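Q: Can someone sanity-check these two? First one:
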Amino acid sequence: MVVKSVKKVVLAYSGGLDTSVILKWLQTAYGAEVVTFTADLGQGEELGPARQKAELLGIKPQNIFVEDLREEFVRDYVFPMFRANAQYEGVYLLGTSIARPLIAKKQIEIAEKTGADAVCHGATGKGNDQVRFELAYYALKPDIKVIAPWREWDLTSRTKLLQFAESHQIPIAKDKRGEAPFSVDANLLHSSSEGKVLEDPATEPDVIVYQRTLSPMDAPDEPTEIEIGFEKGDAVSINGIALSPAMLLAKLNELGKTNGIGRLDLVENRFVGMKSRGVYETPGGTILLTAHRAMESITLDRGAAHLKDELMPRYAELIYYGFWFSPEREMLQAAIDKSQEFVSGSVRLKLYKGNVIVTGRSSPYSLYAKDLVTFEDDQGAYDQKDAQGFIKLNALRLRTLAMRKRKIGR
């Protein structure tokens, strides 16, 4: 249902066919003034054409926003998530999910700046992104009006989109007239491919699906050795060279790509209720996760480490579902960040044909005590006789249960 009262709307704009059609549709269906926002999250595309296309479609220069968010994205969203070792359903590193709250936040900021009374996204009515965007919008500005064209218009096919574009003089590149074999979303953390030729989960993805990684079979026959430095849970250097968050992740992506690291073919459970098949590439993130867990292995107490592992699925689920700005995510983040106080030091790794192999870890705050675990004489650091009472106390309830079973003949 089109709400005619909208005066000005901030559109998340990529410059592609879909969002260009949405731009013109907002002008015709709503009669609204459109503000475009294009975010550089490290997707690897030239963003200048998005500005030029917006101008071509009649958007005033002061209403066109193109922002480089790569450092903010990694520093304030990716790194906090990796402190939790977050993986949805045990494997997915949440590359798309974690980008949506930042885009939504910037849209709301621009709406406030320009006096817009609405925001608009190009997510479909079947996916998770519509939920992620809109939960973030409402959390940040509860009275904002939200426009979701794919739930409103009748442009339900590629043919109708192209007809609309042609009738409104929207430029269409020749290579965009045919239907893409699958859809792609990308940022500095990952790329994801879904739909069309990937919809059958029994069919192996074609090689053209993979854009950010070599096949592990084609990766070099010699391992690449690296060392990652950490401070309070965040990676800060590679091979002793300090790097900004975005530059560090970009370098890990490069190393991961060369060594065939980070491919994932996944059937996941969407928040809206259906299962979907996606092919993900997260080369740098896969390296970072392994390194971070190795760093925690010598700096986190057992109780803290195990509690973090218990909290992680819930934390990952909140991000996947779109609740980044919820109080429960913030509460979990506070606990996770507290756990990272002493997660500092360095981890050595070998990257080899799709594998990330930990070869060493060290920290000035290490809890690993060689005197305690040695098979040699520990000079009295640990009295093995103490283990007898420890075992008997822990066995007490098991022995009591066993005696009851014996008593009743079971």
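And here is the second, same format, sequence then tokens:
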Amino acid sequence: MQMRGGLVAMAALLTCVASVARAGTPELYGFGPRAIALAGAIEAAADGPRATWNNPAALGRLASAGGSLGLLQLAPSHRIVQIGGQQRYPAATPGPVTLGNLAVAAPIGGPFRERLGVGLALHIPLSSPTQIWSRDPRQPQVPLYEGLVDRLLVGLGVGWRVTDWLCVGVTGQLLAELSGGGDFRVSSLERRFTDQRLAVDLWSRLTFTAGATADLGTRWRLAVVFRQHADVRYQLPLTVRVAELGDVAMDVRGVGLWSPMSLALAARFAVTPRWSVLASARWERWSELPPLGPDVRIDVDNAALARNPEQAEQILSVQTSPVPLAAADRVVPRLGVEHRIARWLRLRGGLGWRTTPLPRATGSANYLDADALDLGLGAGFALADPERVDVDRIGVDIAFGWSHLFRRTASKRDPTDPVGGTSLEGDELRFSIALRHAL
């Protein structure tokens, strides 16, 4: 009876966990300080090594090899208030995050000189390794921000300058899928494992980002960037054979780190040789967001107690019921300005508006989100290199960003809900710095 009670408790625990949705920092704010300072309006202004992520078409315009090494610090402050309820499920909010990024790129010489370029971009979580973890869906949480620390991005891109005015490019992003399984045999009387096997497999696959830019005269540049939806899937079946009882079969599978398919249209207009205005609108397909909870199934039989295997009966069967989210597609507009004050100094600023794709949390699940305003401010400094050959070869970019989530309140349809209504608002501060060098 004690063993069966423990199995029931374990089943109940596994069926109430829910995998957190993921939205990566590059998807939200762009890659590197310049993108953050422009509030993400970077598609038509991408250049240098960081174009591998922002718009790979710009790799076709590389004049020389170069690299960039940067750091990003996020300081979120999400405030969740529970209205009514029994306060049995305390709110969970994201903590500070430290991320690193590295990008290198080079043009291809020979017959492809000034026509073909390649780049590599890495986005590295420094606060913790890549991970997929879970929360009870009844616990108030902000899933679209929880995953910012948990995602390692590796992108390899190539850009081709088709004509003097048209460039195209593509970046492949490497992701991993986790699968495996295990079989264990235990004896509750002897209190030991009699046999055990565990296998874990990591499968790599690619998702793609494609981009194009078109220069219309000397003032206008138009850009389009398509991103394939990206996710990390996991499947972990496990069987435990208890000699005095029977088989305990568990299967856990789901989608972890997830970002939507998107299509961005952008433009850059050079008002004067020193002033540029940038704008972009990105459509994001959040309606394809899968349930945040994993699919968990547990079956227990009494094969060891039955006289023959054909008489074995299932004594426990538990399976999760995924919570449909009914997320909505959205369009994210962004606007940026860049001003070259001197050869060694550029100032940047930008703003963006993000409507929430998630509906109000009026049911039993408490996945919270709110409309957000993004503001960015930054500068680019060109420093003389040791040989003083070219003042633009070494530079430093810095950026400050601020996002404000406007208050959003949700009342429960069920007045006896143990959590009660919720109210979310918050802020997030960002600081990014990067050193760049052109050969």
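A (reply): Looked at the second one. The two ends are 72 Å apart (CA to CA). Residues 2-438 form a domain with the Porin fold (CATH 2.40.160.60).
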